Amino acid sequence: MARLTINGAPRDVEVDPDTPLLWVLREQLGMTGTKYGCGIAQCGSCTVHLDGVATRSCVLPVSAIGPEQQIVTIEGLSPDGSHPVQQAWLALDVPQCGYCQSGMIMAAVGLLQQNGNPTDEDINAEMTNICRCGTYNRVRAAIKLAAGNSKTQAG
Amino acid sequence: MLTVPTVTRRNFIVGSAAALGGLSLGFSVPFPGGAQADAIAPEINAWVVVRPDETVVIRIARSEMGQGTLTGLAQLVAEELECDWSKVTTEYPTPGDNIARNRVWGSFSTGGSRGIRESQDYVRRGGATAREMLIAAAADEWQVPASECMVARGVITHGPSGRSTTFGKVATAAAGMTLPAEVTLKDPSTWTIAGKPLPRLDTAEKLTGKQIYGVDMVRPNMLNAAIRACPVFGGRVTGFDAVSGMPGVRKVVQVDDTAVAVVADTWWQAKTALDNLPIEWDDGPNSGVTSETIAAMLAEGLEAEEAFLGNEAGDARAALAGAAQTVTAVYSFPFQNHATMEPMNATAVYTDDRCEVWCPTQNGEASLAAAAEASGLPVERCEIYKLHLGGGFGRRGNFQDYVRQVVSIARQMPGTPIKLIWSREEDMLHGAYHPITQCKLTGGLDPDGNLTALHMRISGQSILAAVRPQAMQGGRDPVVFQGLHAGGDEYALGYSIDNLLIDHAMRNPPIPPGFWRGVNLNQNAIYMECFMDELAHAAGQDPLAFRRKLMANHPKHLAVLEAVAERIGWDSAPPEGVHRGLAQIMGFGSYVAAAAEVSVTDGQLRVHRIVAATDPGHVVNPAQVERQVEGSFVYGLSACLYGECTVNGGRMEQENFDTYNVLRMAEMPAVETIIMPSGGFWGGVGEPTIAVAAPAVLNAIFAATGKRVRRLPLMNHDLRAV
Ligand code: FES
Ligand code: FES
User: At what angle are helices A136-154 and A84-91 packed, to 10 degrees?
Assistant: First the structure.
């Protein structure tokens, strides 16, 4: 059995310790917002936050996560889609098929938490998620919009 | 946003036959006015349901896979319906309902960039018909002539008396009204909902993780399956351990001749057990096939005597023999995997008298046929529930292998819902690959550098021969010639060349080909547009000026090309170190062009900027067109830079994104989109632009380096100066 803290709540799961967090979220906990795209840390569809850091959950066995570590998934970003990054995504109507977008949003939030005003180079370096529909330019614009928005809110 | 269909089969059987006729679309699309109100709200006709709370439910037959068709089609219906757009929601009717109702929704097929253009007429008629019935119901209630009533945003007003009512209030009465004999569609210039850059209807749930894709499907007591088919094409299973002993495993089953599946409590358990399960394969006849043997087979076709004719004018061979100067080049384009972000998957439950499948599909009716075939049950006992697709790109239309497989597994465990998910590795190894071709081009120039003759010999794979042989024309595959035809309203060549021969030596290696977003337009545009650039340079002429001379009879092709040239500043020098390239083509009924600005530093390519122009005739949602154009560059540049599936031992060598790389954020150029609809026709937008991405960039790379990359992808080439 493993004890995890997900979106602020303790969750006990009965699972083989090698099981990647991605599949615990999707199958044991029914939180399907986090997606499977490759299983080898290449595409970023499975991105969640571990103690505030964007992390690819498909290669992270639950045994490597301590009970006190904070896991945040797309479902826990905000109760109602009101997180500034989600709002920026909405304003620019970013998703196409949407399948990569949970991971994109989680990666973007992770980036903005470390760096409130990222340059294009910062965005290029951190946003390595794959989108086959081709939303990259709108993702970039939405990150900048969210950065501007957070600044305005903070100021 | 999208609800699982609420209309039951029982409600669907009424009154559709009576309304047949009136439209000549190759099939009749009736709008049954007499359908019974369903449990929740009255159906005005097949396309429109109005709820008492004024919610307008618009039925969408085509699939949403990211391309925005759901929103676009809803806009077209809403435009004619004159409803309040903020009250619009959508739902998918099921393929089973469509068949039970005489195919009232027409085709469910979503491919070939046809989702909107092929159904725009009858969905608009659906909206207009419903509007007339709603007005008639109000007029009836007021005992006034319908002609005295007006409608706007879901409110019907009687002009003389000023009385008004709403769609929701008259919906039940409207459902019982007779169908108007005739409706007049609005002139697109008067549109207020269609033609506007409205936000998509399906965005909100994609931002919170709530959107349910096929891969997210859950049914009570469901088990999960992982599958492995023989990695060698044409191979089969000869033995496997039917008892796995691994945690959570419930059953190990064979699927057809070709695959083994493990069914377990969770998919992770099923996959882990499958990875540890010894399977014996008979590799079959193709185990000696490699990329090299395929390349040799295609190279032979470049010189073969026999070939199918695609386009011919004058006498190309004679004119080439007499030309002042000839230029020859050989190009090639490799296999590509669709690599939808959501891998293939489907969920099925089978009992002796019914089979139900939940799946992402580009063609619900093809899925239904696959379910019927695999279950052995009649079509009427099968049903498909369509879910949002995490990308389609042509993989989930014709090819229903994943549906057949899940039904085959479910059939071996009756009553238990089974969700089958392909691993990315399975997805990469069992694609319906972009066909492989080579092309030899020979051009003849007169002493003034005018192109007098062109022979374009394509050698390679036919998609139709593999997947739709009944559509072949006497052994010839017309789809091979996309963008190269002598005329027509879909794929016309934009050049007039006095002596022209375009032909195809069909060479079909044993690798399954499929419709891959953009299809054969992709490589045909590279072949033609890069070679035009080669010819222009051989003639010592500007590539735009050289083309222009051949395009006098092709004003729409020329207009998009001129538009991108002007916007990129073709006539002025590019910034220091930056170089430009151009390309144009017509495909999927639309005219497209691109201009690229690139730099190459120490062999490192950077695509700085792309200008794209599209003339699709009519535009239903310009914001969505822009997104399709941007996405097309990602898809087209991914193929140009990295896309290649290589064959060894009769199987694909690439198994995941570590070896099948795709374009990422850091390489994404700025894209400027010029949408220039000239009216009078309906072209598609999901695919054509892909084709001009690569040639525009390749021509710019030549301008930058003097190197012609003729064998795709670019990653295999050294762009450093020698
Ligand atoms: S699924 Fe984890 S990175 Fe692709
Ligand atoms: S929106 Fe479809 S993969 Fe990114």
Answer: 130
